[in-house]
Amino acid sequence: MKDKVLIANRGEIALRIMEACKDLGLDYTVIYTAADEESEHVRRCLDSQSNVRRAWRVSAYTDPND
What domain range is 42 assigned to? Predict the structure, then answer.
């Protein structure tokens, strides 16, 4: 089974995690909220056809029950 990383962060940190995953050959999924829809890390994922999921609330980044 191949490992997959869930990137539940924003901005520059998310971009760095994405680059690290690429360097290590790991698949990743990015979650984002409407507030981040136009951000760089979401655009890069959408452009590269990576696995992207939209969360519905900003608390989705910090609350595992969301």
Answer: 4-59
